[in-house]
Amino acid sequence: MARIIQMPSKDELPEGPTRTFVVALRLYYRSAGRPALREISKLIEGRQDLNNITASQETIRRILRGLVVPHDWNRVNAVLQVFCELSKIDPEADADQWEHMVESHRDYIKRLWDEALEAEPDAPRTLPPTPPPPSSRPGSGGGGFSDDPPF
Fold it and tell me: What pTM was estimated for this model as a whole?
């Protein structure tokens, strides 16, 4: 039996556009019967109708846990397409039975994905560590010379 990917707590994934996107995508995951990550990945692999996108099990897990919002819509669309196929939902049909909106399932998820992507903070820049300043104590190698032999 496949391990079920749990919805992250509000401490793990606070309210906001990313959580809204994850909650919505997980509706399709649940409707598809919570398939194994391996199955989802295999159903995506090598499909020309999905632009030959790949999605590893880890990528899918991270999306469903809200750890990442892919920058590539094709990857999200591929995951959604597989969920829709498994649950026999036409992704181009109106999603109004779920959200009382007149947009397709695909457009609904794409809108939430856009909002989540735009709300993500820029990744923090990490700078290389600054080397310590050379010591100026006598005999400590200050001045650019070392007591060690050159070999």
Answer: 0.74
